Every structure is written in structure tokens, then in C-alpha cells.
């Protein structure tokens, strides 16, 4: 075990009165107030990174607790949506959603000198504790030699935000005994032991998988709310109805969790379980009476969606449509650190006017239906659904007598890029490159692309894949996407991708891309329109990208002892 050591806490922000009151404390390094929160954040984090050894400064993970900021910015956006709806109009571009917390980390990356992984925790009452536990555990276990923990909170006097950051490093004697960050502990691996899914095709991964193999499109007209003021009314809507007084998101998650636990061979969640939730934000007291607010925001006495997980181990993550993959990365490290024995990563997208209005004002939705990787693609079709992934160490699954579905062999998450909504091909390629390197691979048998169907995003993803393909001499590696079949599940978008990858490994079949008619050209990958049987699939690269510079890619691997029959029951 390595002994962590915390350096001096650096404090800044946009609240001069608060900062002045802290200057007398010798254990703090207090900076001058910044003109904006983004500027103050960059100043504080840059100062914290400068305290790290030069060899660790560029790639040190940053874990940010930002519950207050998330609540404030989301509440402001919900208020703008309510005002627009009351006036019977669409949002104006000037009323577009305030940047998500991860965009503060994006500002840090754009300032230069740092390109490591960054994570945003927004868990009610526990985000800072979770960030500190993560850094302490990861460094103790030797996963990293340095990390930075930071906190963004409302200033005590209500005159802005306070930003605090502390570098955490391995002790000098421990650093000398190691040769570098490997991102894993010797002999350990993290595996997928269960998956659960609800989509427009119905309950279960089998229904979704069969829809992909059949090339069907589970799309219909939106009926969850009045969509008359929006550009698009075509969605991937489920048939799930919430019980009286409850949100639809709860009903969706309950169904997905039941399947995931059953597939993992678990009657209930064991003790020492980490719950990572994507697709919801903390309670928003300022707008708690807004219509259908419970589809995106937790109730005041949130109990981990009925999971029974203790609050310190119930995490909310905010990384736009890449939240699920960032959650997998966190869960992997907590398992390898010994901070948890089991990890359950959940995500939900319940159709609501707030997410819809954001995509509408950005003109990201398609007026027809999404056609991922198609020359005539015109935007996103929003989907509804939920997903749950159970992760454990290989040793724990074996001890329970279970067979893992796949191994999470490599994963990379970065918050970087240019602009709010554009995917940067080079950053996307960097994530793929890092995930491959962690897995010890140079090529894969199949890629399940993020491919939302937008003009810029799909093209940039193929450029990123071609960049990696050129480096490793890929020749026609197959790639496809589910989003033309079930819609884009937004914050929960990674879960159908994981299920597709696991099923491809199990059944030795490559799914096609429903809705695709004229595939985009690529030099080193081959876009699939129709499903194909394929013997010997052992590795699948899954991409997951989001607004605000959120980028992620990961490798799922599994044995391929021979192709199973491609049957009609999935």
C-alpha cells in the first residue's frame, strides 16, 4: 500500500468578501478573486497542478465536487424553460442551457498544460467526501501517483462561488519504488457481471438486441408532453407508465435494475456496493414546482432510487451524454482500490421538456428520424429508456461461481475539446488510443459508435477512428450504432452500447445500423448497414461522447470459443 499525502489547500473564487475572511488561516493558500467562475477555477486548479511533480502535472486526474453549481445552473435553465412554455414559444439561443459543471474542467484543458482525466461529482451532501475517498483510495492502491481534488461551493455570504483544490500525491518513498502509473493493480481485472436495459423495444436486453438484428426502428410520435413548439416530434418512447405519484424514471430504472441483478446472479445488492447514477441532478428547491421536474431532478429525501445503498456510496455524475462511461471509469477504480466490492452504474432518460428544449435550441434534433453515419443524416432522435451495469472484480465473480459477460479491459475519459457541442476528432482519438493501450491492444474486432446522427458528430467520430486506424493499419474494422433504432438516450446513451457489445461477444454477430441508407466513407473502418455473423469476436470498442467536451472510449473483451447460432430469440 502507498501512503497518500495532501499538500496545501488552494482557495479562490468569485467572492472577495469570503476570500478576505480566509486569508488569516495559515494552512490555506488564498488567491485573488477572479472576474468569472471559469477564470477563478482555472487559476485555482493551475496553482494546484503546479504543486505536483513535473512528471505528473500534465496527466493527473482531477475530481471535482460541484453540487451547488449544478443545482444553480440547472435551476436557472428550468426557469427559462418554464417561462418559454408559459409564453407558448421555443427557447431562444441566448436562453440555451447554462454550461454543465464539466465545462469548467474543459476551460482548464483549453488553458494548456493539463490533459488528464476529469470527473464531476454532484452527489447531494456527499460529493466532496466521495472525491476525497477516491483520491485517497486510488493513490493508496497505486492506481495513480497524483490526483487533484477540488470543490466548487456557494460562498458563505452568497456573493459568488468559492473554489478550493488540494493536490494529493504518493509519498516520496512510495514514488521511488514504482515505475509509473499503470491504471491497474497486479492480477486484478474488472468485469461486467450483469446488464439491464429498457428501450422503446420493450423490457430487456434481448428485446433490444433482436430489434437491432431485425433492423427495426422503435420510433413513434412523442406523447409524454406537449411537443408542439419543438422542431421534432419523433422519439424512441417506451410503453412504461409511472405508478401514481411517481416519476417515470423510477419505473424505468426499477425494471432495468431487476434484469441486471438477475443476470449477475444477485438476489439483492450486497454490502459495500457503489451506486453511480447518470441522468439525474440533485434536488432543485428553487424550481421544485416546475412541471415534471421529477423526471430530471431527485426528490429532497432521495434514497438512491430505492437501492438501499448508503448515501456516501451513492454517486451522481454529470458529464452530459458521456455520463455513463465516466461512471464506468469511476466504478472500475473504486473496485480496484477496494473502496467497493460491487459497483452498479445506472442511467435513465425519461422524456421531458427540459432535455428536449436544450437539443431543440441547439438545432441538434432531426425533423425526421436519426440516420447515424448516413450522408443524409440531419440530427438526433431522442430516446427514452434506462440501463444498469453491474461491475465486479474477476476474483469476486469467480468466487460466486458466476461467469462474467465481458472484461472492462481499458477505458479513457477526458474533458477537453473546442466549443460546447462539437466533438473534437483528435480528443476522441486520444481516448480510443488510451483505452487500447490500457487493454494492451492495437486493434479491435468491432466498434460500437456513439454516432448520434448529427452532421458534425458522426463525421468527427469517423475521422477519429481513421486516425487510430492509420496508426495501427486497420483494414475495414466494422462499426455501427444503435441510435437509429431506439433513439439517443442522452445521459443514458452508453447502456444500449454496452448491451450491444456484450451480445456481439456472446453471439458472434455484428449488429447493423438501423436507418442507414448511404454510409459515410472511411478509410480504415467499414460502416455496417446490416447485421453480419462474424467468428472470433474477442474485443469491442465502445465510444461515448457528449456536449461540453465530454469524451470517453472503452474496451470490452471476452472469449470467442466459436460462433453461437444466430437465432431469432436474440
Task: Give a topology summary.
Elements lengths: L3 E3 L2 E5 L2 H7 L5 E3 L6 H14 L3 H4 L4 E4 L1 H20 L15 H10 L6 E4 L5 H14 L5 E9 L6 E10 L1 H5 L13 E10 L2 E2 L1 H10 L5 E2 L12 E2 L12 H17 L8 E6 L35 E3 L6 H15 L4 E8 L3 H9 L23 E9 H6 L6 E10 L9 H15 L6 E3 L6 H18 L4 E4 L2 H4 L7 H14 L1 E2 L14 E3 L4 E2 L5 E8 L3 E8 L13
Helix pairs in contact: 2-5, 6-10, 13-14
Task: Provide a quick synopsis of the model.
The chain has 570 residues and is of the alpha/beta class.
- Measured on Cα atoms, how large is the radius of gyration? 22 Å
Strand proportion: 15-25%
Shape: globular
- Give the quaternary arrangement of the chains: single chain
β-strand number = 23
The number of helical elements comes to: 16
Distance between the termini: 45 Å
Described by strand count, sense and barrel closure, the largest sheet is:
12 strands, mixed
Q: Report the helical percentage.
A: 25-40%
Unreliable runs, pLDDT <50, ≥5 residues?
A: 175-186, 560-570
Category from helices, strands and their pairing? alpha/beta
Give the rounded overall mean pLDDT.
92
Amino acid at each position: 500500500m502507498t501512503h497518500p499525502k495532501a499538500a496545501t489547500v488552494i482557495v479562490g473564487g468569485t467572492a472577495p468578501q469570503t476570500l478576505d475572511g480566509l486569508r488569516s488561516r495559515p494552512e490555506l493558500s488564498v488567491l485573488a478573486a477572479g472576474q468569472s467562475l471559469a477564470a477563478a477555477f482555472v487559476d485555482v486548479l493551475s496553482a494546484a497542478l503546479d504543486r505536483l511533480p513535473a512528471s505528473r502535472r500534465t496527466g493527473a486526474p482531477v475530481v471535482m465536487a460541484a453540487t451547488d453549481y449544478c443545482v444553480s445552473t440547472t435551476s436557472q435553465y428550468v426557469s427559462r424553460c418554464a417561462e418559454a412554455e408559459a409564453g407558448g414559444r421555443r427557447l431562444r439561443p441566448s436562453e440555451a442551457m447554462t454550461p454543465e459543471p464539466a465545462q469548467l474542467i474543459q476551460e482548464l484543458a483549453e488553458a494548456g498544460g493539463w490533459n488528464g482525466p476529469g470527473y464531476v461529482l454532484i452527489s447531494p451532501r456527499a460529493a466532496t467526501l466521495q472525491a476525497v475517498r477516491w483520491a485517497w483510495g486510488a493513490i493508496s492502491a497505486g492506481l495513480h501517483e497524483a490526483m487533484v481534488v477540488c470543490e466548487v461551493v456557494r460562498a458563505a455570504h452568497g456573493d459568488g462561488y468559492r473554489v478550493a483544490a488540494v493536490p494529493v500525491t504518493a509519498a516520496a518513498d512510495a514514488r521511488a519504488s514504482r515505475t509509473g502509473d499503470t491504471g491497474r493493480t497486479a492480477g486484478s481485472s474488472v468485469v461486467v457481471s450483469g446488464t439491464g436495459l429498457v428501450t422503446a423495444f420493450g423490457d430487456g436486453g434481448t428485446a433490444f438486441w433482436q430489434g437491432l438484428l431485425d433492423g427495426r426502428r422503435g420510433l413513434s410520435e412523442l406523447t409524454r408532453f406537449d411537443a408542439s413548439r419543438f422542431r421534432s416530434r419523433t422519439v424512441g418512447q417506451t410503453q412504461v407508465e409511472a405508478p401514481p405519484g411517481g416519476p417515470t424514471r423510477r419505473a424505468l430504472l426499477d425494471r432495468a435494475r431487476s434484469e441486471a441483478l438477475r443476470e449477475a446472479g444477485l438476489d439483492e445488492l450486497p454490502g459495500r456496493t457503489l451506486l453511480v447514477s447518470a441522468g439525474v441532478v440533485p434536488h432543485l428547491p428553487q424550481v421544485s414546482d416546475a412541471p415534471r421536474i421529477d423526471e430530471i431532478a431527485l426528490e429532497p429525501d432521495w434514497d438512491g432510487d430505492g437501492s438501499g445503498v448508503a448515501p456516501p456510496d451513492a454517486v451522481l455524475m454529470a458529464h452530459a451524454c458521456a455520463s455513463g462511461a465516466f461512471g464506468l471509469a469511476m466504478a472500475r477504480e473504486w473496485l480496484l482500490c477496494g473502496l467497493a466490492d460491487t459497483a452498479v452504474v445506472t442511467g435513465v432518460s425519461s422524456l421531458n421538456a427540459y432535455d428536449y428544449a436544450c437539443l431543440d435550441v441547439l438545432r441538434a434534433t432531426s425533423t425526421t428520424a436519426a440516420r447515424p453515419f448516413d450522408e443524409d443524416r440531419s440530427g438526433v432522435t431522442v430516446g427514452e429508456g434506462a440501463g444498469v451495469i453491474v461491475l465486479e472484480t474477476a476474483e469476486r465473480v469467480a468466487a460466486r461461481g458466476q461467469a462474467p459477460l465481458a472484461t472492462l479491459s481499458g477505458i479513457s475519459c477526458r474533458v477537453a475539446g473546442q466549443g460546447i457541442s462539437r466533438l473534437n476528432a483528435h480528443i476522441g482519438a486520444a481516448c480510443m488510443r488510451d483505452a487500447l493501450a490500457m487493454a494492451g491492444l492495437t486493434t479491435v474486432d468491432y466498434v460500437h459508435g456513439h454516432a448520434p446522427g448529427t452532421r458534425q458528430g458522426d463525421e468527427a467520430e469517423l475521422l477519429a477512428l481513421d486516425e487510430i486506424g492509420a496508426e495501427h493499419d486497420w483494414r475495414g474494422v466494422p462499426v455501427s450504432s444503435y441510435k437509429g433504432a431506439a433513439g439517443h438516450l442522452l445521459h443514458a446513451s452508453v447502456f444500449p452500447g454496452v448491451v450491444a457489445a456484450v451480445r456481439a461477444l456472446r453471439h458472434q454477430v455484428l449488429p447493423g445500423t438501423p436507418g442507414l441508407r448511404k454510409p459515410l466513407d472511411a478509410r480504415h473502418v467499414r460502416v455496417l448497414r446490416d447485421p453480419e455473423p462474424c467468428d472470433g469476436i474477442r474485443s469491442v470498442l465502445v465510444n461515448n461522447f457528449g456536449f461540453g467536451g465530454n469524451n470517453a472510449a472503452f474496451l470490452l473483451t471476452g472469449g470467442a470459443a466459436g460462433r453461437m447460432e444466430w437465432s431469432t430469440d436474440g
